C-alpha cells in the first residue's frame, strides 16, 4: 500500500496503530477491528468506509488516482 501511495504521488496521512494507542483505538472504533493495513475513506457525503486488504486498497487507489 505504501509503495502504491508513493508511486501515485498521493498525500495520504499514515498512522501507526501499533505504537500509538490513540490510533489503535480509532481503528477499532471506526472500522470495527484492529487490522493493518487499513485505508479510511471519507466520501463526499461524509460517509466513512474502512478498507482492509492490501490488494483491495491498491486497486481502489489506482482506480481513483492512477
From TrEMBL:
<dbReference type="InterPro" id="IPR004045">
    <property type="entry name" value="Glutathione_S-Trfase_N"/>
</dbReference>
<dbReference type="InterPro" id="IPR036249">
    <property type="entry name" value="Thioredoxin-like_sf"/>
</dbReference>
<dbReference type="Pfam" id="PF13409">
    <property type="entry name" value="GST_N_2"/>
</dbReference>
<protein>
    <recommendedName>
        <fullName>GST N-terminal domain-containing protein</fullName>
    </recommendedName>
</protein>
<feature type="domain" description="GST N-terminal">
    <location>
        <begin position="10"/>
        <end position="63"/>
    </location>
</feature>
Amino acid at each position: 500500500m505504501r509503495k502504491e501511495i508513493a508511486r501515485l504521488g498521493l498525500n495520504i496521512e499514515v498512522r501507526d496503530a501499533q505504537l500509538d494507542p490513540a490510533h489503535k483505538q480509532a481503528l477499532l472504533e471506526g472500522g470495527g477491528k484492529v487490522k493493518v493495513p487499513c485505508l479510511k475513506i471519507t466520501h463526499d457525503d461524509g460517509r466513512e468506509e474502512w478498507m482492509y486488504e492490501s490488494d483491495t486498497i491498491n486497486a481502489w487507489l489506482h482506480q481513483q488516482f492512477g
